[in-house]
C-alpha cells in the first residue's frame, strides 16, 4: 500500500450539505443493484433475472411469492414468501441479506420453503451470519419434499415436485383454487342450494388451475416429473445450453436442459407463456436469439420468451 491516508472528513458544513442534498422522499429513490427484467402476462407480473452460474432470482408480486435468492433487488424484500429450488450459491447467496433487510425494515417474519435435506445447513449458515453480524435473522424455514402441498392463502396453494440437478433440488407450482358448484346442482336456484347446505350437503367442489410453475435447475426429467409444468399459465424454466455441438448426455448429467430437449417436447407445452432463462454466459445475447430463432418450432414461437 502506498500513499498517505486521506484525513477523516470534518464533521460540519460539508457533511450536512451532503445530507441535505438527498431528496426528502429518499426511500423512493431507486437503488441500482441487481438487474430485473419484467413481463406482464394475464394479470401476473414476472420479475427477475437468471444466468447460469451467475445469479437467479424471481418473483410474482401479484401472488406474493418469490423464487431463489441469487441476489436480492431492493424491491424484492417486500415479498414475504419465497421458495428455494436448491442451494447452489447463485441461487441462495442473498438469503441472509433478504432476511436481514426485512428485520431492519420492521417487516413481518418471512416464510421460506426449501429442500428438506438443506435445512440444517441453511440454519447453520444463518446462525453464523447472526454471530458475525450481531443481528437476528428471523425467518420461518419450511422443509419440503417432492409431491407435497402447502396453503399459501385461501385462493392459492403451493405444491412441490422432484427436479434433477447435481445437488438436492425441488420445483414448485402455484395453483389458483376456487369453489365451484358441483355439476349436479348447476340448475338449482339460490334457495335450493341454501337448503342443501343446511342439510350439511357439500354442494361445491374445488377447482384448481396451475398459474406459475418454477423449475429451478434441472435436467428434462424434472419437467416431465410434473404434468402441471406443461399446463401452468406461466412456466419459468431453465434452458442453459443451446449450441448444437454440446453433448446432451453430459448436460443432463450436470442437471441442465438443452434447447433440443424443449424442441423434442414442443407438443407437450400447453403454457400460455414459457419464460426461458438461466442461459449460459458462454453465449452472447444476440447469438442466443439467432440460434433459438432458427430452431424453435412454430408452435412455441409466440409463447417462448427468451429472458436475457
Ligand atoms: Zn443455476
Ligand atoms: Zn444449480
Describe the structure.
Residues 7-19 have low confidence and may be disordered. The protein is globular and about 65 Å long. The strands form two sheets. It has a seven-stranded mixed sheet with strand order 1-2-3-4-5-6-7. The protein has a seven-stranded mixed sheet with strand order 8-9-10-11-12-13-14. It is built from eleven helices and 14 strands. The longest helix is centred in the middle third of the chain and has 15 residues, at 119-133. It has helices spanning 13-20, 89-92, 95-104, 119-133, 190-198, 220-224, 228-231, 248-253, 259-264, 285-295, 298-301; strands at 37-41, 44-51, 55-60, 65-67, 81-83, 111-115, 140-144, 149-151, 156-162, 170-181, 204-214, 234-238, 273-277, 304-306. The protein is an alpha/beta fold and 308 residues long. It has one domain (30-300): Ribonuclease Z/Hydroxyacylglutathione hydrolase-like (Metallo-beta-lactamase, Chain A, 4-Layer Sandwich). The protein binds zinc ion (2 copies). One zinc ion binds at residues 86, 88, 165, 217.
Short description:
This protein has 308 residues and is α/β, with parallel strands linked by helices. It has helices at 13-20, 89-92, 95-104, 119-133, 190-198, 220-224, 228-231, 248-253, 259-264, 285-295, 298-301, and strands at 37-41, 44-51, 55-60, 65-67, 81-83, 111-115, 140-144, 149-151, 156-162, 170-181, 204-214, 234-238, 273-277, 304-306.
